[in-house]
Design goal:
By secondary structure, the chain is α+β, with helices and mostly antiparallel strands. It has two helices and ten strands. It is rod-shaped.
Length: 179
């Protein structure tokens, strides 16, 4: 004997919506929806603050080269580097067609008794939203000066960055203590 369709559908294996089943289903769906809402809110805040996908934006200012004393040929160059982007960058090297030999990045550290030590470094970090100010007491570019340089001479340099590429700048030759 065959049961009518309505009686077959109402058998023990059919699903019937009850308050308990509906409540359980809604609670099961609520957790992923809430997680997506929190993630979307966090991403919206991150993007709104300008941090999402913002590359390093490098600008170089105030290039200076110290005029060496007497017969000395070694000197140093200094630059102020600004990173207005949302990602860190690294200064990898500094080159110049007017520098004899290789220019190297050096970090100086003051020791006791007015002594200083210098060591060559491979690169220097330029933090996002910050900068790097080179000085005789920290990071500088050690180089061999051209004997024809005088105070006021401009020397071309190319700063090579990991993400920012190459930036060409001019540095003015100054007497130490003047600028």
């Amino acid at each position: 004997m065959t049961l009518p369709t309505a009686e077959r559908a109402a058998g023990p294996l059919s699903w019937r919506p009850t308050r308990r089943r509906i409540a359980d289903s809604l609670l099961a769906a609520l957790a992923p929806i809430a997680a997506c809402g929190v993630a979307l809110g966090g991403l919206t805040t991150w993007v709104g603050s300008g941090n999402a996908g913002s590359p390093a934006r490098i600008a170089v200012a105030e290039g200076r080269v110290f005029l060496p004393y007497g017969d000395a040929q070694d000197t140093a160059a200094f630059f102020r580097i600004i990173n207005s982007g949302g990602a860190d960058d690294r200064l990898l090297k500094v080159t110049s067609p007017e520098v004899q030999g290789e220019a190297t990045l050096s970090r100086h550290r003051m020791m006791s008794g007015n002594a200083a030590s210098a060591r060559t470094v491979d690169s220097a970090r330029v933090p996002a939203g910050g900068g790097l100010a080179m000085s005789p007491y920290g990071l500088d570019v050690t180089l061999r000066a051209d004997p024809a340089w005088q105070a006021g001479t401009y020397v071309p340099f190319t700063l090579h960055f990991e993400r920012g590429g190459r930036i060409e700048v001019q540095a003015v030759v100054v007497r130490p203590g003047e600028g």
